[in-house]
Every structure is written in structure tokens, then in C-alpha cells.
UniProtKB/TrEMBL annotation:
This is Enoyl-[acyl-carrier-protein] reductase, mitochondrial. Belongs to the zinc-containing alcohol dehydrogenase family. Quinone oxidoreductase subfamily. It catalyses: a 2,3-saturated acyl-[ACP] + NADP(+) = a (2E)-enoyl-[ACP] + NADPH + H(+). It comes from Didymodactylos carnosus. Residues 38-362 form the Enoyl reductase (ER) domain. The keyword Nucleus does not apply.
Amino acid sequence: MKISSSSHYISKFSLFHQIRRALSSYTVHELQSDQYGAPLEVLKLNKTQTIDGNQLKANESIVKLIASPINPADINMIQGKYAILPKSFPATFGNEGVFEIVETNVKAGLKPGDWVIPKVLEWGKWRSYGILAENDLMYIPKKDLMPEAVATLSVNPCTAVRLIKDFVQLEKGDTIIQNGGNSAVGLAVIQLGKLWGFNVVSIVRQRENLQELVDYMKSIGGEHVYVEEDLRKAILLTDLWKKIPRPKLGLNCVGGRATIDLLRILAKSGTMVTYGGMSKQPITVPTSEFIFKNLTCKGFWLSRWKTDNMKNNEYQKMLHELIGYIKQGHLKPPQCQLFKLEDYAKAIEASEQRFSTKKVLFIS
Ligand SMILES: NC(=O)c1ccc[n+]([C@@H]2O[C@H](COP(=O)([O-])OP(=O)(O)OC[C@H]3O[C@@H](n4cnc5c(N)ncnc54)[C@H](OP(=O)(O)O)[C@@H]3O)[C@@H](O)[C@H]2O)c1
């Protein structure tokens, strides 16, 4: 049979790709558990499969982990104490992260080397490799971006944006007060608040190396940093409000006593939004403030916001706005500690350290 030179070329070309793909296979390791429990007791790094490009359906890509953080919600999920839980076991954890395309069947658009954020919530990101469809990936223009900034972008800075924008109509010069001021969300609130012209008063827990923390928070734009005890002293009961307006918006990451004190500081008709419960204590609203100051207390959950905004372009628009701020130097990623997946026990221990302002990230 006579083969035309072009079909001969095509068959050689596809043979070349088949051989290359057969040679490039990827071992998938996933940080999983078979049950809920304490992370150090239940997590295991499992070798789950080997994948290669021949398995890819149209529009699918093989992605490789670049970096994925440990957030408090990940720990809560492993413990079985979160609003969204895995549908089955073994379950792979990790709610956010940045990956690199290593092979792709996507004809136009994505190419090897591109950075992507997986959009699928239930697809655990603590894994070395995986296969995802094009619709499940968000392309990130990586020029001038640090992996840590992208890996930690889709939860905490997005939460900060929604907390500042969605509850109170703030005007330039208005004040926001927040506890957990050194959390990743809090650090993003400080930077975005400053960028948008608001005063941000941040409350942190007392600690031995307080000055070091305050210096760091000031270096990223935190002008007003106080400890929880100051909420009951003249400086925050009266004095500061002679210089800047009382806060119209309070952001609660902590719960318990820190929140009662913060509520007392709010302006008349102020709003407090609870988004975290780090102290594991309930919120008690002081009755007289609630009635006589006409306070509003609300809750916020980014996962619900993402579900509500799945069909419009708002999430993508917000990520690109935040990427712009990172590139312009307005938004710095949290300080990070990096661990390989196989060092997961050390990583979990580091993430559970008190008074650490460093985000723990898995890298491949
Ligand atoms: N609702 C949402 O959609 C949403 C989205 C993102 C995050 N969150 C929540 O927001 C919170 C912060 O998340 P993140 O990733 O920003 O956290 P992170 O960077 O890990 O920081 C944790 C913060 O909590 C403080 N903290 C820890 N234990 C505490 C305790 N017992 N009492 C008081 N403060 C304590 C830490 O202060 P120290 O330095 O003093 O230890 C630090 O400020 C978490 O509860 C998380 O689940 C919620």
C-alpha cells in the first residue's frame, strides 16, 4: 500500500507522541485519610496511581502540584468538623493550590508550563499530580508572580475582598476593626483596606515577640495594631476615636471574649461579620449595645459565595483584580514555610503552632 508523504508524516508524528507519552508517566501521591480524626493520626501519603498522557480525554490535562497551603478549614475537614465534608473515603484533602500543566489535550489555550488554579472544590489539592478537564481549571498569567502568592489567593484574599465590599457601604476614611489581625485573611484586609482608603484597626493576641509581629504588620501597611487587652483600655475605648472614626465594620475571626469587646467598640448602626471561629468559643452579643447601638451581626462563608456566583464571572474577575494588586506590589502573600508532601507530619505540626504568622505550604 502506498502511503502519501503527509499521512506518513502524521503517523510518525503521532507515534513520536505516543512514545514520548509512554515514557513520561507520573506517579500520583495523595495525602489522604480513611476516616475523620486528628490530622497527625489519620493522614497518610498514598501512592494512588500512575498516569500518562495516553489516558487524557479531549480537553483534559495532567497537572502537577506547585504549591498548596494548609488552611484552618482543611484541618476542620480532616477532623470531620466542617460544613462541606468528603463524599467518601479514602478522601484527599487540600482546598486550594496552584498547579502546572505538564501534558494537555486541550487544543487551544492551555499549554505545558502554564499555571492553573483548579476550580473544583471537592478535588483535594494535596496531591503530586492529577487529571482535570479544561472547565475545571482557571488559567493564571504567571509572569511576575510568586507561586506562594497564587497558591494562597483563592481563599483568604478573596474572603477579605467580600468582607470589605459586601456588608457595609464604606467611604474613604471609614474604619474597619478586625480581630485575628495577623491571620492570612486579616493581613489581606489590612492591605486591601489601605489600598481602598480605609483605616484598618487590627487586634492580635498578646505574645512574647509582639514587637516583631507589629513591625511585620506595619511593613505591609498595618497602621493600627493592638492586642486584645487594649480593647478594654482607654486607647481603644475612647482615645483612638478622637483621631479616626469609630468602625462601621467589624470582622470577627475569633469568637468568644475578643468578639464581645470588639462589638462594644463599633460605631452606632455598625455591622459585625463573623467569618471564623478560631477560639472555638461562641459569640455573645452584649445586649445593651445590640439594642441601643442598633448593631447588625452577620456571617460570611466564601464557599457559599462561590456557589452563588458559579455562573457569572465574578470569581474570575476578583482573582484577576487581586493578581493585578500583587503585580503592583499592593498585596503581598503571607510569609510561608514550605514542605514536601512526604514531610506532611512536620507540615501539620508547623501549621498547628500558636503565634506563627507563617502559612504552611505543600510543594511538590
Ligand atoms: N468564612 C469563610 O469563608 C472563611 C474564609 C477563609 C478563612 N476563614 C476562617 O478564617 C479564620 C482564619 O483563617 P486563615 O487562613 O486566615 O488563618 P491563619 O492564617 O492560619 O491564622 C489563624 C489566626 O487565628 C488566630 N488564632 C489561632 N488560634 C486562636 C485562638 N485560640 N484564639 C484566638 N485567635 C486564634 C491566630 O493568631 P495567633 O498568631 O495569635 O496564633 C491567627 O491570627 C479561620 O477560622 C478560617 O476557617 C473563613
